[in-house]
Structure formats: structure tokens, C-alpha cells
Model the fold of this input.
Amino acid sequence: MENYIALANLLSPLISVIAIIVALIVARSSSKDAQEQIKAIRHLLDVFVAANNLDIVEAQRKYQQQLVALDSQIEDAQMAVNIVNPFSGGARIDCIMDVQEKSQQIEHLNRLLAKRKEVEINITLIQDYINKATR
Done:
């Protein structure tokens, strides 16, 4: 009985070492499997991106066209805001109407600027997506 206990005490570290080696081998093979799965997922994402790139590029093109149109509208609105009525300073009602008109022009300009910022953000998001997808 004591021999078995002594033998078990001697074999215990050896069995532990074998168990560690087996665990390392299993971890290494499962790591390779995980890497293969990641490669497969990346391939599927590439296929998905390729299928949707035409829609994304078309959306980007539309946003860029909107940006060009907005730029010309903003330029016109800025000129309208900057124009000073040479006949202002006449009747009080004319002054009030001029102030209201300028206020409306400024509001219109601010809406156009906000819309431009929104379109720029959308273009940036699309460009970031395309950059990430083509890596």
C-alpha cells in the first residue's frame, strides 16, 4: 500500500506535466480553428461589401451632387444677406420690413449651412466605411 502511495507521489508531477502539454496542444489547434473562422468571416464580409459597394458609391455620388447644389445656394443666400438696401432709412414700416427680410434671409442661410454640414458628415461616413471595407 505504501508503495502505491509513493508511486502516486512520484507520478503526480509527471502526470501534471503531461496534462499541461496536452492542454497546450489543444489550445494551439483551437487557436488555428479560430483563426480559420475569422478568415472565413472576413471573406464573407468582403463579399457583402462588394455586393453593396455599388449602392454606397451611388449614395456618395448623390451626396456630392447635393453638396455642389448647396454650395451655390449658400453663395446666393450669403450675397442676399450681404446686400444692403440703399433705400433703407425711409419710413419706419420700410425699416421694419427690411429687418424682417434680413432675418428671414439669415435663417435661410443658417438652414442651408446646417444641411451642408449634414451632407458633409454623410459623405465622411461613407468614405470611412469604404476605407474600412477595402483594407
Observations:
- The helical segments are 2-82, 92-133.
